[in-house]
Amino acid sequence: MVNALTRYRLNVLGIYPRHMIGLIGIPCSSFLHGSFSHLMFNVFPLFILSNLILLQVSESTYIHVSLFIIAVSGALLWLFGRRAIHVGASALIMGYFGFIVIGVYHQPNVIGIIAAIVCVYYLGGMFSNLLPSKDKTVSWEGHLFGFLSGILAAWVI
Predict the structure, then answer these.
(1) How confident is the model at residue 106 (pLDDT cuts 50, 70, 90)?
(2) What is the pTM of this model?
(3) The domain spanning residue 114 has which CATH number?
(4) What is the 3-state secondary structure (H, E, C) of 61-104?
(5) Distance between alpha carbon 11 and the CA centroid of its chain, in Å?
(6) How confident is the model at residue 129 (pLDDT cuts 50, 70, 90)?
């Protein structure tokens, strides 16, 4: 709301690759969005995937996974992203997606298998977000690095 009231001027706190000022975006970018519709497109998958993860792990593990995905995907985006200001929770969402889909391999249990099946069946279209898009306003790099960070989180955490 604050960002919208300031006409999205807070988006300068997003990730700006390979610039020192862009480092502030690593912890901030997930909380900034380019528009209200951008926020809405992130809220629903974030809510669904967060709850699917919380069905499988403790609250503290969920927080560790979230912080890990934000830090690693943000660092990768800062290092390798294209020249633009990257904002939005898409990297975190894709990280959750990767964590759920790959995490079932590491800890196979009934709830994890059901969560992975639900993710792939209902949200499988998210795989297409891992490839470059003609829409230059979409950070496909953030999607890719988020997904890879989620897979890494499944291995590490």
Answers:
(1) confident
(2) 0.94
(3) 1.20.1540.10
(4) HHHHHHHHHHHHHHHHHHHHCCCCCECCCHHHHHHHHHHHHHHH
(5) 17
(6) confident
